[in-house]
Fold each of these.
Amino acid sequence: MLSAFHLSRFRLTALSLIATALTLAACSAPPSSPSSTLPLAPESASGYRTDLQTRHATHHMAAAANPLAAEAGREMLRRGGSAIDAAIAMQAVLTLVEPQSSGIGGGALIVLWDGKTVRTYDGRETAPAGATEKLFLQADGQPMPFTQAQIGGRSVGTPGVLRALELAHQKHGRLPWAQLFEPAIELAEQGFAISPRLHLLIASDSKLRNSPEMAAYFLNTDGSPKAIGTRLKNPALAVVFQRIAKEGADALYKGAIAQEIVAKVQGHANPGSLSLNDLQHYRAKERAPLCTDYKRWQVCGMPPPSSGGIAVAQILGTLQALETRDKRFALAPMKPVKSNAPAGIEPAAQAVHLISEAERLAYADRAQYVADTDFVPVPVKGLVDPTYLASRAALIGERSMGTAQPGTPPGIQVAYAPDRSPLRISTSQVVAVDDQGGAVSMTTTIESAFGSHLMVQGFLLNNEMTDFSFIPEENGQKVANRVEPGKRPRSSMAPTLIFDRQSGEFVASVGSPGGSQIIEYVTKTTVGLLDWNLDAQAAINLPNFGSRNGPTELERGQFSPALIRELKDKGHSVSEIDMTSGTQAIVRVKDAQGKASLAGGADPRREGEALGD
Ligand code: GLY
C-alpha cells in the first residue's frame, strides 16, 4: 500500500494539478452549456500551450498525456520502480482521467529497453473468433458508414493492453504489481477534476448520450456535459482496479467482469461476437523489435501488426538515401526558423517538401503490404532494405510527385489489393526512463474518441476492429488488412526508442497518438531531435506536417504564407488541418563534461506533462 508520506504527497500534488486545471479552464475553456456541442473531429486539439519548457532530471522521468498520469508514473519511479512499472501506473490513471483515448478496454504496443536489449510487447486487440471479413459490409456489399461501424459491439476487439503490461511486468517489473494501481484506485475513489480536454471531447460527442452509462457519468441530468473542474468519482472502476491489483489481468479476462464485457458487446443493438472464449484465450506477444540505422543512430520500433515502425524506418531510410545521393538534400542544414505562429518555430519549406515526399512513398507501401504477420506474409525486411529505399529515394525530385505508387520490395510472396480505408485519428502516449537507465515508449488506444461507446464498470471498450479494412477484396484480390478471426488490425502506432549506434547508449524515447498521422508526428519529432538538434520540447512543438499520400498536410495556423507558397510552387496540393499530436519524449543528454541527464517534453496540443527528479 501507499505509505502515509507517499499518500499525502500524491494527494497534495493531485490537488494542485486540479487547481491548475481549473485555472487553465478559467482562461481558455469553451462554454460548458448544453449548447457547447462543438463540431470537432474526434481527438481535436484542446488549444496550443505556448509556455512549455523542456523539463530536466538527473535520475528518472515519466511523461503522459495528463498530469495526474505523469505524476503516478513519477511516483512509481521515486519508489525505485522500473520504466514499465511507471507505464503501468500511468495506463491505469489514463483509463480514468483520459477515458476518451485509452484504457484497460483497449490495446497497446510497447517498446522497452532493459539496459541491455530492446524488446517489444504486442497488446494489440484481436478480432473475435466469430468475426468475418464481411464485418463492416452492408447488405448491398458496400462498406458501412464509420459511425455505424464504430458504435456498439461490432467494433470491439479482444482487449490486449492489460495482458501486455502483465507480460512486460513479469519480465521487467521491480515493484509489486498491486502497488502500481494505488494512484488510480485513490483517484477513482476520491475523484478527479474533469480537465478542459476531457470536457471538450464530451461536449463534442453527440452520440455519448445514447449510452445510459456514459450519459450518467459524463453528462448532467439535463443532458449537458459536466463542466470543467467537476469532480468525477468512479467507484466501479476503483473496484475493477482493486481486483486487477489482487488477481492480475485474469480479473478482466475471466469471471464476472469478462461476462459483463461479453454481455455488453453481444447485447447491443449493433452487436459484436466477442465471447468469453476470446477473452480467455487472448495472449499478448513478445515480438522482435524492428531496428534500423539512421545516420549515427539506431531507431527501434514496433514490427507488424503495426505499420508505424516500418513506415518511420522507411521514411528515415529514404531521407538518408536522398542525402547520400545529393548533399543538397541533407536535412541538417535546413534548420527550422523562428515564426510568429503559436509554435514560434517553422521548418524550412525544402525540409517539408522532402519529408512529405518520403512519407508519400512509405504510406503507399503501407496500404499495399502491411498487416498482421501472423496471418499474411509481409516483406518487412524488404520494405526497410537500404537498397530498396535508395530506389524509392530516386523518385523524389524538386517537385512533388503528387500520389506515390507502392514499390516492389524484395520478398513479396502474395499480391494484395491496397487498403483504401480513410485515415483516422485517436490514442495516447506514455514514456518513462528509470534510475537504472531502462526506458519505455508505449502507445495505447481504444481507437476513436470514447471507443465503441460501450462502458463496463467505469471503463470503455475499444472500437479497434475499425482499424481493419472495411473492404476485404478488390478485383478478386484480397486486402492484406482485411478482417479475419483472431487477427490483429493494422496499427499506425509507432512507439520508438533511439540509440547511439557507436556506443549503444540510449538516446531517446518518443511516441505519439494520432491514428494514421502518428507516423508523421513521430518522424517530425525524430528529425527535430536528431537532424536539427532541437531540445525535447522544441522538437515536439515544431509544427506538424507531412503527407499520408494525399495532400501535403500542414498544421493549421502554424505555417507562414511564404512557406505555403513555396510548397505550392513545387507542385504540392496543400491542406491546412488540425494535426492533434500528443507526443511525449524523453531524451538522454550530456553536458560538456560528458555527464548524462534527462530532458523531457510533452505535447502543447494536449494536456500532458513530463515529470522527473
Ligand atoms: N487505433 C490507432 C492505431 O492503432 O493506429
Amino acid sequence: MKDNERPIAVFDSGIGGVSVLRELAALAPNENILYYGDSENAPYGEKSPELVRELTFSNVENLLRIGAKALVVACNTATSAAVRDLRGMYPTLPIVGIEPAIKPAVIYGEQTLSKTDGSSKIIVMATPVTISQAKFARLIGEYEGRAEIIPLPCPRLAEMIETGDINSTEIKEYLKNCLVPFLDADSVVLGCTHYPFIRRHIEEILPGAKIFDGGFGTAKEAVRRIKEAGLENRSTQKGNIEFVSSKDKKMSELYRRFFEMEL
Ligand code: DGL
C-alpha cells in the first residue's frame, strides 16, 4: 500500500466518534479510514483520568501498528486526558483531538444575539472526566467575562447512547431532568461525541437554544493537518471505511449503522 493510501485512524471510547467520522468522510471521501471504538471499555467519561490515558495509549499503539498515517481522537474525554502525552510520544504523527466547541457559541452570543455584556448563557454538556480536567478549566477561562458558561456533567448519558437505542424514554427523561432548569439558555455545546446522535431531543427541550458540536471543526482540522504533512490520498476513488470494535462484531455493525443513519 502506498504511504498516502494508509488509513486515517479515528478513535473513540465507543460509538460517539462516528459523529466525527461522518464529517470527515464527507470532507475527504477519497480517504481510507479505520474507525476504532473501545466499546468493551466504554464509558471512559466516568473512569479515572489515569485509566483513560492508559486505555488510549494502548489503543493508539495498536492503531499505529496497523499502519495509520494520522490519528483523530474523536473523543473529548480521551483528548482532555491523553492528547498532550500522545503528541509527545509520536511527534511526527498528525494527531487531531476534539474539544467542546465553546468558541463558536461565545461568538454566536456576541455577534448574532448582540449580547456583548457577557450575558449570553452557554450550557456545556460533557462527561464528568472532561469537565474535571485542567484543560477544560483553561478553555472556559479563555472566555472569562464574554459569556456565562455553565458546565453540565452528564454521567451515564454516553452509556445510554452506546446501547444504540437513541430514542429511548430513559434518554428523553434524562435530558428533560438535566436541561429543563436551563430553558433560558442561548446555546448548548455538545462536549461529548456521543451527544450529536441525540441532538434532536435536546432541540425539542430547548427550542430557543442553538446547538454547537465540534465534529465539523475537528474533521476540517484533520484534513488540513494531513495535507500539511503531504499525506493526503491522491486517489480519485472513494475511500474504504472499516469499522472495528474492541467489543464484538455486532457493535462494529452498529457503528456502521450510525454512520449511515439519517439524523
Ligand atoms: N465520546 C466520548 C467523548 O467525546 C466519551 C464517552 C464515554 O464516556 O466513553 O467524551
Amino acid sequence: MTAAIHELMDFDEVLEKFDPVMGLEVHVELATETKMFSTSSAHFGAEPNSNVDPVSLGLPGALPVVNAKGVEWAIKIGLALNCTIAESSRFARKNYFYPDQPKGYQISQYDEPIAYNGYLDIVLDDGTEWRVEIERSHMEEDTGKLTHVGGQSGRIHGATTSLVDCNRAGVPLIEIVTKPIEGAGARAPEIARAYVTALRELVAALGVSDARMDQGSMRVDSNLSLRPIGQEEFGTRTETKNINSLKSVEQAVRYEMMRQAAAIVNGEEIVQETRHYQELDGSTRKGRPKESAEDYRYFNDPDLPPVIAPKEWVEEIRATLPELPWIRRARIQAEWGLGDAEMRDLVNVGALNAIIDTVEEGATPDEARAWWGNYIAAKARETDTELSAMPITPAHVARVIALVKEGKLTTKLGRQAVDGVLAGEGDVDEVIAARGLEVVRDDGAIEAAVDEALAANPGIVEKYRAGNTKVTGAIVGAVMKATRGKADPAQVNKLIAEKLA
Ligand code: ADP
Ligand code: MG
C-alpha cells in the first residue's frame, strides 16, 4: 500500500471543506490504415519494429506527409463533440527527448487546434444530464512503446534492459481536453467515469477508433485540484496518468480528492506534478514534476503546411455522422416501450447494438432480445467473451429467428444452428445443411413415429383416455427421439390429440 489510511481524508469530509475542480485529457488512437505522417501500417499487434519507416523512425531528411483520413476523422470527432472546426489549423513540434520518440519531438497541435469550444452532454447514473465543456480536440501522433525487462511488473525501476518498439510511433492520435469541470462536488468521480464512457461509445459509434482502454487505444489523464469552499481561484492540480479502465478513472479522481485534502489540512503544499495510478490498490503515486508549456519549446512544424478544412468539406463530413449512441438508445427505448431497468439490462449485457441491428434485419425486438440476451449471452459468459466480440452477426441471428418463425427450425434446432455459426462452420444455412438440422415436415414419418410411440405406451394412452390429457410428454419425447429432435412439437401434439380423440 502506498498510502496509509491516515493520509486520506474521508470523502464526505473532503466535500465539507473543499470544492474539486477536474480536467480530463483523453487520447484516442485512430484506426486508420496508415500512420499520421507516413505510410507504415497503423495496426496494433504486429511484430515489434515491423511497422516502421524513415519518418516514424525520425531518420534525417525524412519528411512527413499528412494522412487525409486522419484529418477527416479528427473533424468527425470535433463535430460530434459540438466543436467549432478551424478552417485553418497548424501542426507544431512539442520538443522533448524520450527513447520511444526518436525524432526528439512529437508532432502535435498547439495554439491552432483543428477543433475547439465544444461540449458533450452525458447522462449520470440517476438519469440527470451533465454538460462537459470541451476546450479543444487536436491531432497529434503517438509515441513508440518501451518494455522494461528485469524489474518488478514491467517498471523501469530495477530493470536491466529496456526495449524500444516503434510500431506505435506516428499512429494518429486525437487529444480531447475538457475545460475545468467545476461545481461537480461529490459527483466529480462519477462524472469522470460517465464522461469517458460516453466518449468511448461515441468514437466507437463514429467508427474512428476501437477505443480499447486495455490495449491503450484510449488513454485518460485526469487533472484534479481542490479549493476551499467559497474560494474562486483554482488550487494547484495534479495530473494522474496510467488509468486504464473506466472503474479506475472514477477511483483515481476519488483518491486524489481524499489525498489532496488530507495533505492540505496537514499543511503540505500540493505541487503540480504527474502521478501514476496504481491498479493494485487504487492509489496514485508521485511521478515527475509537471513541465509547463514553455518547457516544450513549441513552434510550428516547418515541414508541414497548415491544414485547410473548407466549409463544404466539413459539411460533407457532418452529413456522415451516425445517430449518436445515447440518442439512439433513447429512441429505441421509446419505440420499443422498454422500462428503464429493462433498458439498463440490455445495455449492461452489451447486447443493445446487436439487438437493434437484428431488428433492422427483420426480427421483432422481443425475438432479438430473447436470442441475444439469453442463449448467446450465456454462450459468451461460458467462453468469457464480450457479447459484441462473439463470432456471430445480427444477420445470422435474424436468419435463425426467421427460420424458427417459419417453422423450419424448432427453438432447439435454432440453438444448434447458432452453435454451428459460433463454431465457425459457416453461415446459418450452411450449418443447417451440414448438420442436417431442418425440421422433419414429412407427415408420414412423424405419424408413423407417433403410432409407434402410442403402441409402445398403452398405460399412457389409457390415462389420457381416462381424462388426464397432461400425460403426453413421454409420447412427444419418444417421437422426438425417433426423429432425432427434428419433429415440430406442436405438430406432434396435434397428431396425438387427433389419434386419441
Ligand atoms: P497540460 O498540457 O499541462 O496537460 P492541458 O491544457 O492539456 O495541460 O490540460 C489540462 C487539463 O486540466 C484541462 O482539462 C484543464 O481544464 C484542466 N485544468 C487546468 N487547470 C486546472 C486546475 N487548477 N484544476 C483542475 N483542472 C485543471
Ligand atoms: Mg495535455
Amino acid sequence: MSAQLINGKEIALALREELAAELAFKKYRPYLAVVLVGNDEASLIYDRNKQKAALAAGMDCDLHHLPEETTEDDLLDLIGRLNGDDNIHGVMVQLPLPKHINGRRIIEAICPEKDVDGFTPQNAGRLLLKDERAIVSATPAGILHLLKTVHQNLSGLHAVIIGRSNIVGKPLASLLLNQDCTVTVIHSKTVNPKEITRQADILIAACGCPKMVKKDWVKEGATIIDVGINRIDGKLCGDVDFDDVCDKAAFITPVPGGVGPMTIAMLLRNTYQAYLALKK
Ligand code: NDP
C-alpha cells in the first residue's frame, strides 16, 4: 500500500481563501498584533509571512519588532496597550523570547479574549473543559482540521501523540479527547514507545527528533501526522522517516507542506473568532 498525501499547503490555502471571501463582504477588518523581540531571522521571516497572510485575507496586522534588549516591563507595557486597544482583536507574542524575559509572565499578561495563540491558562483550561469559548492553539487546531479531511468520524480511534509540550502535545491531547478519540501521550521517559505507537490508528509525531518514527513503529493503514521541523544537512525533515513508513500508512503529511502551512491559516481563523467574540 502506498500512503495518500494529506496536502496541508493546499488545505491551508483553501482555508485562507475561504476566510478572505467571507471578509470581502464585511465592513470591518479583524486586527492582529504580532510582537517579536530580538533578531532571530527565522522568527522574523515567519512573522512577516503571518502579516502578509493576514493582509491577504482582508485583515489588518501590525508587526511590533522590538530590540533584543527590550525589558520585561517594556514588553508588559506594550501588551497592556494592545489589550486596552478596542481596535485590536488578536495579540500574539513570538516565542521563544530572549532569556532575560519570563515567557510565562508575558503570555499570562495577554487578555484571554485576544490570545489568538491559545497559550494563556484561561484558553488552555477552557479547551480542557471543552468550553466553546476556548481559543485553540493554531498548530493543534490545524492538525485536527487535517485529520477531518480524511476521517469523517474520529470517535473511538486510538490517537497516539509523541510529545507533551504545552504548545502541541498537551492541547492536541485535549482536542482529540474532545473528539472522542482514545488518546495516549508518549514522551521522553516512556518505556518502549513503539509498542504503543504500533497500536495507533492515528499517530502524531511532535517530538523534534529527526526521522525517529520508522516502519516498525506504525500500524498498517494508520494515519500519520508529522509535526516535526528538523534539518539534516540543511534539508528539512520531520520526526517521521517518510520514505520508510509510506508503504505502511494509509495517509501521511509531508514535511514541508503538511502541518506547517496550517498553523498560519488557523491563527487567522482564531483572529476572526476573537473579533466576533469581542464584538458580541
Ligand atoms: P518541545 O521540545 O517543546 O517538546 C518535545 C516533546 O517531545 C517533549 O514532550 C519531549 O518529552 C518529547 N520527546 C523528545 N524526545 C523524545 C523521544 N525520543 N521519544 C519520545 N518523546 C520525546 O517541542 P515542540 O512541541 O515545541 O515541537 C515539537 C516539534 O514540532 C519540533 O520539531 C518543532 O519544530 C515542531 N513544531 C512544528 C510546528 C508547525 O507549525 N509545523 C509548530 C510547533 C512545533 P519530555 O516532555 O519528556 O521532554
